Amino acid sequence: MNADKEKWILLVVLSLIWGSSFILIKKSLEHFSPYQVGALRVLIAGIILMPIAILKYKLFPKKHLKWLLLAAFTGNFIPMFLFPIAETEVSSSIAGIINSMMPIFVIIVGALIWKFDTTKQQIVGTLISFTGVCLLAFGGDGEGGKFKLIPILLLLLATLCYAISTTTVKSKLMEISSTVLSAFVFSFVLFFPSLIALSFTGFFSTFSFDENNLTGLMFVGLLSIFGTGLAMMMNYRLLKVSTPLFASTVTLLMPIVAIIWGILDGEKLGTIQFIGTGIIIAGLIFLRAKPNVIKK
Predict the structure, then answer these.
(1) What does the pLDDT look like over 86-145, one tens digit per residue?
(2) DSSP string of 11-65?
(3) In terms of Cα–Cα distance, which of 276, 240, 246, 249 is closest to 94?
(4) Residue 216, CA distances (Å) to 24, 67, 78 in order
(5) Under 8 Å CB-to-CB from 226, ≥6 apart: which residues?
(6) Which pLDDT belongs to residue 118?
(7) Which residues contact 274 (CB under 8 A, 6 or more apart)?
């Protein structure tokens, strides 16, 4: 399969998987605390990918360890906690919409850290989308809810972390295969931090194999296997066959999937939320009008 066709297939599949992750987080929160959801999500992915990491341990990139640590913690650890924490205050639909800001953060991080060129068009598109985010923050939850600044900021921080990880992988870790890189990240780098974090939540002392906990594990398991392990393999592969900006535009389609799941689950978006969503997507489309504007 040629790279151009492969990147579009990966983009669509990733959009469906990651767009569904927000509703899975919401369902997981009905059974576990946000900290337990975050830690379990990483830990389960690490357990599943451990055999690959062990078999390929000789390929561990010791010379790029600092970049691997940066990519792992910003892309696969910190956001795993920030999203559940935020979703205790906002709907899964809003979380998916805010995550669509990732291409903007890719541009900002690329310009500040990796010295990518930035165009006026990208700056204007960033400002347009930021206006939409402000509407979401000040517009409540679509059901007459109150001002939601803190969870919105947490979601933005998580999205910024994703952008840092994405640009780091593209710039420093492309020599490692996507499957092996995912295995190293979850099994070697993040396994013990997630295990320690989970122990501090009191999970091991309170967990019992009752219906409530088993149902929760099912949702977190789906989130870990598809939304974390498999999705990160596909994301790393997408970075290999495209650019960081193209890979980040998966977030253009994710809100659509997230909103559909949210509506099916009874969530409601008010007029302000729809307007804000439209403005965010308009800004992203504007800054993506020229596909090759970012160069080293």
Answers:
(1) 999 988 888 888 887 887 888 888 888 877 666 777 778 777 877 877 776 666 555 555
(2) HHHHHHHHHHHHHHHHHHTTTS-HHHHHHHHHHHHHHHHHHHHHHTGGG--GGGH
(3) 276
(4) 10, 33, 21
(5) 17, 20, 21
(6) 66
(7) none
Contacts of 194 (CB under 8 A, 6+ apart): 39, 40, 42, 43, 46, 77
Q: What does the alpha-carbon distance between residue 106 and residue 251 come to, in Å, rounded to a whole number? A: 12
Whether residue 211 is predicted with pLDDT greater than 60 in this model: the reply is yes
Residues 6+ apart with CB under 8 A from 271: none
Give me 193's structure tokens.
């931090």
Place of tokens 């060129």: 117
Give me the residue label for tokens 């295969």.
177
pLDDT (0 to 100) of residue 138: 67
Task: Please state, as a whole number, how many other Cβ atoms lie within 10 Å of the Cβ of residue 47.
Answer: 16
290: confidence class by pLDDT, cuts 50, 70, 90: low
Q: Are 214 and 31 in contact, with CB atoms under 8 Å apart?
A: no
User: CA-CA distance, 50 to 145, in Å (whole number)?
Assistant: 43
